[in-house]
């Protein structure tokens, strides 16, 4: 398939590149300085110090032990804890001589009831 094309190309004579093209190609092939070196060049010592500081901070973060997640969270209050606090308050009142022990205790918690009374209609059909 390409053999006809290849034969025709072999028959053609090679032309010389123009001189200004050759200079442009050689100039483009030269290694260009990295952009980051040009950006950091005005004060490389400052950038090196900043990199060292970030490395030190990273090492501190990695080296410190992590606290468990439960340390900062509060447990939800239950009725049992409220009853315990009420008993403690009464004992402290009795020991301190206050005569406020005749207070009525708080009502017991209501039984859990469904939050919705909406009825769902079902049709059989």
How would you describe this structure to a colleague?
The protein has helices at residues 3-11, 19-29, 35-40, 44-63, 79-96. It is built from five helices and no strands. The two termini are 72 Å apart. The protein has 125 residues and is an all-alpha fold.
Unreliable stretches = none
What do the pLDDT scores average to? 78
- How would you classify the helix and strand content by structural class? mainly alpha
Main sheet summary: none
Q: How many beta strands in the DSSP annotation? A: 0
Q: Total helix count?
A: 5
Compute the gyration radius: what is it?
A: 43 Å
Cα distance spanning the termini? 72 Å
Features:
125 residues; mainly alpha; 5 helices; 51% helix; elongated
A few lines on this structure:
This protein is mainly alpha-helical and 125 residues long. The chain is built from 5 helices and no strands.
Topology:
Elements: H1 3-11, H2 19-29, H3 35-40, H4 44-63, H5 79-96
């Amino acid at each position: 398939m390409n053999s006809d094309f290849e034969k025709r190309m072999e028959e053609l004579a090679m032309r010389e590149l123009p001189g200004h093209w050759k200079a442009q190609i050689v100039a483009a092939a030269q290694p260009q300085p990295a952009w980051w070196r040009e950006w950091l060049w005005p004060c490389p010592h400052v950038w090196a110090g900043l990199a060292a500081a970030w490395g030190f901070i990273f090492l501190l973060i990695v080296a410190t032990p992590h606290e468990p997640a439960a340390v900062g969270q509060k447990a939800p209050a239950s009725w049992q804890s409220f009853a315990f606090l009420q008993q403690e308050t009464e004992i402290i009142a009795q020991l301190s001589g206050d005569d406020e022990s005749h207070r009525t205790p708080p009502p017991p918690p209501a039984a859990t009831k469904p939050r919705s009374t909406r009825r769902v209609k079902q049709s059989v059909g």
